[in-house]
Specification:
Blueprint: H1 3-15, E1 21-26, H2 31-47, E2 51-57, E3 64-69, H3 71-79, H4 81-89, H5 98-111, H6 127-135, E4 143-144, E5 148-149, H7 153-175, H8 180-183
Antiparallel strand pairs: 1-3, 2-3, 4-5
């Protein structure tokens, strides 16, 4: 799978401006080429108001955990008082500043033994569902789709359908020859 295919498959709603952020694992077949592609895409997406960053690199497999986000939208989501309070309870600081919080998340991905499930907040998941997932160890959910739902099933299903439709349209347009650049809605 190419980097472009992975971005379309996993981040179409973010590229379309429907979702604040997307996350995907990417295993480059040519690491040297990937470094060049990554820099090119980071610059291109930046011109559209999106950020692309490496949250983690696995030394053993050479795979990357890549994250695409719209800083203005994500900053607003992370600055919500209840979200900020919850992140503070988990040990995050920086007063809700988006990039500082992302650096802390990246550190947790690299140095904590357990996966930091609060990552859902950095992907636009509802706070209640993130708390529910963590409190129930991923069990006892009411519905599952892009994430496990513990609170508002009706709203989550609506969002899942919207994300799926977006991804389906983007995949079709990409197969028909549109570039990721053409499909990325400016922030």
């Amino acid at each position: 799978m190419t980097l472009e295919e992975a971005m379309i498959e996993h981040c179409a709603p973010t590229l379309a401006g429907v979702k604040s952020a997307g996350l995907f694992r990417f295993s480059p077949q040519e690491p040297g080429r990937f470094a060049r592609q990554f820099r090119e895409w980071r610059g291109a997406l930046d011109r559209r108001g999106l950020n692309l960053l490496v949250l983690k690199r696995c030394r053993r497999t050479g795979a990357y955990l890549l994250y695409i986000y719209r800083e203005s939208v994500l900053s607003r989501e992370l600055a919500a008082p209840q979200v900020r309070t919850y992140l503070a309870e988990l040990g995050y600081h920086a007063g809700g500043e988006c990039r500082a919080l992302l650096r802390q998340l990246a550190g947790r991905l690299c140095f904590q033994e357990e996966f930091p499930h609060e990552i859902g907040l950095f992907l636009g998941y509802p706070l209640g569902d993130v708390i529910g997932f963590m409190a129930n160890a991923g069990k006892n959910y009411k519905f599952t789709g892009y994430w496990k739902v513990y609170t508002n099933v009706k709203e989550a299903v609506r969002m899942f359908e919207k994300y799926k439709k977006c991804r389906d349209v983007y995949e079709r347009l990409w197969r028909e020859g549109r570039s990721v650049w053409q499909l990325t809605v400016a922030a």
